[in-house]
Amino acid sequence: RKHIFEGMYASLDRLQMDYVDLVFCHRPDLHTPIEETVRAMSDVVSSGMAFYWGTSEWSAEQIRHAHGFATQNGLVPPVMEQPQYNLLTRDRVEAEYLPLYRDIGLGTTVWSPLASGILTGKYNDGVPEDSRLGHEKYTWLQRVLEGDQGQWKLEVARGLAAIAGELGCTTAQLALAWCLKNPLVSTVITGASRPEQVAEN
After folding, report:
1. Cβ atoms 22, 80 nearer than 8 A
2. How many Å separate Cα 184 from the centre of its chain?
3. 29 to 26, 55, 144: CA distances (angstroms)
4. C or N terminus of the chain, fewer CB within 10 Å?
5. How far is CA 45 from CA 64, 95, 172, in A?
6. pLDDT score, position 18
7. Percentages helix, strand, coil for the chain, rounded to the nearest 5?
8. Which residues of the chain register pLDDT less than 50?
9. Contact 115, 88 (CB under 8 A)
């Protein structure tokens, strides 16, 4: 509870805002009971620091537990989740969370719609030096292209590039549109390292 409130005060101060619309609990704290997290997040909303709260990278079981505890105890429940979702990573959004959309009205704010840039097609013929995977500080991310799994991801990206060409759009635009077309996706978080990427997205 202390960490959540101190974090909210510090974030609002840095943002120079009195409140935010949404706040997410990024990954469940395995050393803190979900009940304590739910009470603290409910109080964040009740205090006016945020309008709604949600989870990020929580399992369906953890979300259901949090939502059930909140509603049984007159607290503000989580209403959205921030999962990874793209053409290469689909199970959680399309299968695991399926009952939650119906049962609690779960919304989703998906991240990594371009799969760390793989679905832009920029790695189809190797790793460009000026790309994220070509940068020294992202060596940990280079694993995404290793082995059979990495080769499969590149094959998907190459197939997507061919379809994008037929449609007259970029591979990245098609990958984003594919995510947004899913009615289970409320909104998509995009990232960029250059202004022209923002414009393209």
Report:
1. yes
2. 13
3. 9, 11, 26
4. N
5. 19, 29, 36
6. 98
7. 55, 15, 35
8. none
9. yes
> Could you give the CA distance from residue 33 to residue 132 in angstroms, rounded to a whole number?
37
Q: Which two tokens stand for residue 135?
A: 């940068």
> Cα separation of 26 and 5, whole Å?
15
CB 14, CB 7: distance < 8 Å? no
pLDDT of residue 1: 94
Task: State pLDDT tens for residues 164-174.
Answer: 999 999 999 99
The reported pLDDT for the residue numbered 158 is 94
Rounded to 5 degrees, φ, ψ at 20 are: -125, 160
Which pLDDT score, from 0 to 100, does residue 148 have? 86
Residues in the chain: 201
Say what the pLDDT of residue 116 is: 86
| Residues 50 and 21 sit within 8 Å (Cβ to Cβ) | yes
pTM for the complete prediction?
A: 0.89
C-alpha dihedral sign at 116, 28, 70, 8: negative
